Amino acid sequence: MDNLREGIKQVLNVFANIRIVDFLDIAIVAVLFYALFMLVRKTRAAQLTKGIVLLVVISFVASNLNMRVLSDILSAILQFGVLALIIVFQPEIRRMLEQIGHTHIVSLDMFRRRTDNEERRLQTSRAIAAVCDAAEQMSASHTGALMVFERKSSLGEIMGTGTMVNSDVTTEMLNTIFYEGTLLHDGATIIRDGRIAAAGCVLPLSANLEISKEMGTRHRAALGMSENSDAVVVVVSEESGIVSLAKNGVLIRRLDRAALFKILSDDLLPLIEPNEKEKRRMVRSAKNAADATKEKLVLRHGKKAEKASEEQLADAVQAFTAPEQEDKE
């Protein structure tokens, strides 16, 4: 009991000595760590950072459990690994320090108003339609094009190789970018959150030796981008006019507008999850639609519909809505 009282006294003494400066100190450190995390996340060192954190955790556990051999090996790796990482990732470190030099506090994501999910979904849908229309037109005119949809993997490092644009995705804008007379037509266009973020970007080429010799540099770049990230890349061949799509290191060729629109919609739109407010609105809409359908069933089939089981009600709804769909057709 005395030990408990002594422990409570120590805790109270710690809180009594906390000053406003201490809270400010903690807040500044948290912001700095968050800013460092956001900068690292936009480079190819992000996955490596996760591996380093995992090694540190394993080393800490091995040290506490007195696993001497494993602890010594991990300690040696961490000691010499830091110097090796500095040498290997020297360009990324220099670029990150340059970004810190010209980054404003208000530009951090934690202080930025996030785009509403519904607005993002609408922008992405418009971008998909514009890309499909532009791909169809450029296919007919044999205009080469390379359009990249960013997904979860950040393409900030790739965008740095091109020209920042920040414009709406329209068919006219894409046709202008990839027109042979413009300076940006040879590079790739990066689409982020339904907007053209950058153009004239350089993509990594695929190292796959099994690629057909018929594939040009654009197709190799599309495959390389899909191998190094989860991005979805649309390619239009300048020679044949064939529209292709690369994702997860696989190239899907000879796509028409309908097939391209379906693949892009299936891959990109599900990534935008509705928030809680949108979910409640969707649930209310579905419930109201179900209640209205049930009322129509009661009017047509009598009160037996009220006592029907869920499966019977579903079958009745399908039978009820089928004639209405036929009338509309």
Structural account:
- The protein folds into 3 domains: about 1-110, no CATH class; about 115-270, YojJ-like (1; about 280-329, no CATH class.
- The longest helix is centred in the last third of the chain and has 26 residues, at about 275-300.
- The relative contact order is 0.08.
- α3 (about 45-65) packs antiparallel against α4, α6 (about 115-140) packs across α8 and α6 (about 115-140) packs antiparallel against α10.
- The model is unreliable at about 100-115, about 310-315 and about 320-329 (pLDDT under 50).
- The chain has helices spanning about 1-15, 20-40, 45-65, 70-90, 90-100, 115-140, 155-160, 170-175, 215-230, 255-270, 275-300, 310-329, and strands spanning about 145-150, 165-170, 190, 195-200, 230-235, 245, 250.
- It has about 325 residues and is of the alpha+beta class.
- The chain contains 12 helices and 7 strands.
- The chain has a 7-stranded mixed beta sheet with strand order 2-4-3-1-5-6-7, sandwiched between helices.
Structure keywords:
329 residues, alpha+beta, YojJ-like (1, 3 domains, seven-stranded mixed beta sheet, 7 strands, 59% helix, extended, disordered C terminus
